[in-house]
Fold this sequence. Notes:
Blueprint: E1 3-13, E2 20-31, E3 36-40, H1 47-54, E4 62-67, E5 70-71, H2 77-87, E6 88-91, H3 103-108, H4 119-128, H5 144-156, E7 162-166, H6 174-191, E8 194-198, H7 202-206, E9 210-213
Parallel strand pairs: 3-8, 3-9, 6-7, 7-8
Antiparallel strand pairs: 1-2, 1-4, 4-5
Bound molecules: adenosine-5'-triphosphate (ATP) and magnesium ion.
Adenosine-5'-triphosphate binds near residues 12, 41, 45, 47 and 48.
Amino acid sequence: MICELRNIVKTYPAPDGSERLMILNDISLSLDKGESVAIVGPSGSGKTTLLHIAAGLEPPDSGEALIDGCDISKMGERELALVRNRKIGVVFQRHYLLPQCTLLENVLIPTLPYRNEQARAAADILDRLGLSKRLNHFPAQLSVGECQRAAFARALINRPLLLCADEPTGSLDQAAAVEMGKLLYEINKEEQTALILVTHSEKLAAQMDRTLELCDGKL
Ligand SMILES: Nc1ncnc2c1ncn2[C@@H]1O[C@H](COP(=O)(O)OP(=O)(O)OP(=O)(O)O)[C@@H](O)[C@H]1O
Ligand SMILES: [Mg+2]
């Protein structure tokens, strides 16, 4: 299995500290190579929290989160950073591209630890995402959809085993969102990257292999 969540429980403290709010209540989910799953559910149901736990960005209270067979919920910060860099790609609703870097430089950021000839790979992936004429543009010179595609290129540059995307089409119009869904699914199948996609769009969810609904802490 590429991604395996076992009996994940996550609570957050209530603001007055009186009690803890149950967000994820014993969630289990597994994804093999090349599988895709859409997570849908009401606002506040814990989709982002679940994605962050799968991506190693947040620890669960209890339960296990495995990537490629290793439990990331028990790793130290250094080891975890390495696993995130090598095995996991993340795309957030907002693209978080660095404004002072061109698209090419942005996409190369995850490869900086390796310092080998990655520029061609970065250019290839930007080309694949329809941005071959935008390599030396800055994010501010591009449309929201173009920036979001560049954020995907950055998440994919190290060929992760798992791609976690949190409402990546939230700021796109319907047609652009469907186009993005198609592209994502293609990459998921071609590269065999496991894909967890959080979305409010039923259309986009239907483009994935399966859809799971998060509600009252349960999938
Ligand atoms: N750091 C935090 N401290 C306390 N509560 C939090 C924290 N992060 C999230 N929560 C709470 O956890 C719940 C789930 O949040 P989460 O962001 O996972 O929801 P979501 O399903 O992604 O919602 P949306 O569709 O609006 O993005 C919410 O009720 C939120 O208030
Ligand atoms: Mg969310």
